[in-house]
Amino acid sequence: MMENIEDLLPTDVSVATLVGRVFDPEVDGPCVVVVRGDLLVDISHDFPTVSDLLESTDPVGGCRSSQGGRTWNLRRVLMNSISEEADGVRLLAPIDLSVIKAAGVTFTSSLRERLVEEQAGGDPARAEEIRSELDTLIGADIGSITPGSPRAAQLKADLQARGMWSQYLEVGIGPDPEVFTKAAVLSAVGCGQQVGVSTISAWNNPEPEIAIAVTSIGKIVAATIGNDVNLRDIEGRSALLLPRAKDNNASASVGPFLRLLDEHFTLDDIRGAEVALEVRGEDDGFVMAGVSQMKLISRDPTDLAAHAMSRDHQYPDGFLLYLGTLFAPTDDRDGGGKGFTHHVGDIVKISSPRLGTLVNRVNYSHLAPRWEFGIRDLMRNLARRGLVSQVGKGS
Predict the structure, then answer these.
(1) Among 288, 346, 331, which residue's Cα sits nearest to residue 124?
(2) Do 362 and 348 meet the contact criterion of CB atoms below 8 Å apart?
(3) Is the N end or the C end of the chain the one with fewer CB atoms within 10 Å?
(4) How far does Cα 178 stand from its chain's mean position?
(5) CA angle centred on 225, ends 122 and 77, rounded to 5°
């Protein structure tokens, strides 16, 4: 999957505060780990879950002061994680009890593509024609508009008068963003694991994104890379099918690590991040690459986090929020005018210099490893290990 495992790590890994999770066969469950030099250090005895760490008064201080327990060679675990035949200690998604949320239509380019999906009714053959029409009619206006502004309200009125208003325009330039539950707690896959697309879809794609970890009091404390795998034809048939398009087995990928905000990595680094995508086809040699800039996002990460959690909606264990993507692939793959869709075996790499690289292989959702380790399993596992003394009794 990777020619150089060093690329999985941030370019400034020596000063980064990196937290993750590994599956350890010895305890038949997950361990919370922190990167220290060439080692992964188990800090589970101080923080049984990542949510425990993030909800602590000082997550960075906790990472640095925890004496830790067992250790593993970092690069050996990384190699094991991306080797599809290896057993042993390997990376998991670096979140556990956090609810997995996602924001949509947060970039002008992705707004255009959602409109294309809607107008095409899920038919990729009509996409290019509709794309050109939309660019002519509204493309220039949308790019410079601040969501929720008076100018946005005026454009809405103009488009309504022309019969062109859309539910995607509403969340793209209206006062309220689209924020939805992407996947269930504990269902995300990590670096090196398979991501899944459903066989019901003939038009689907990766969505390379920055994701932020937000605490129960709404504080952004970390960031990572995410792949919000999407079935474009299903969502294009109806926005009400969003759960079917977004939430399938192995459709949420996160990792390789959470990078905590500290003196070396701040919110401004998230705002200025560059996100690169590369897809390589195993069966046809197809290569697609692209880069998106977080500086082009239409809503600030703090605004999106505030919309996700308010006095009307709480997350006592915190949440992870995908911030949306600028990159919507339109490269023709299986013939002119058909656009891009995944093939089984595709290798997807999403990278950002300060966060590292998330790499996954594409499979059908029903053929990817089943998600069978749920919240009850986690609590029982932690209780057996003496990490949560009162959980699981009587079960």
Answers:
(1) 331
(2) yes
(3) C
(4) 15
(5) 125
**Tens-place pLDDT, residues 296-309:** 898 999 999 999 99
Query: Class of the 5-104+177-384 domain?
Result: alpha beta
Query: Is the separation of the CB atoms in 2 and 357 below 8 Å?
Result: yes
Going by pLDDT thresholds of 50, 70 and 90, the confidence category of residue 390 is very low
Beta bridge partners of 228: 252
Do 343 and 271 meet the contact criterion of CB atoms below 8 Å apart?
A: no
- As a whole number of angstroms, the distance between CA 75 and CA 2 comes to 13
**In 3-state terms, what secondary structure has residue 284?**
coil
Task: Please report which residue ranges of 87-223 form alpha helices under DSSP H.
Answer: 108-120, 127-134, 140-142, 150-161, 167-173
Give, for 64, the enclosing helix (H) or strand (E).
helix 59-65
Q: How confident is the model over 43-76, as pLDDT tens digits? A: 999 999 999 999 999 999 999 999 999 999 999 9
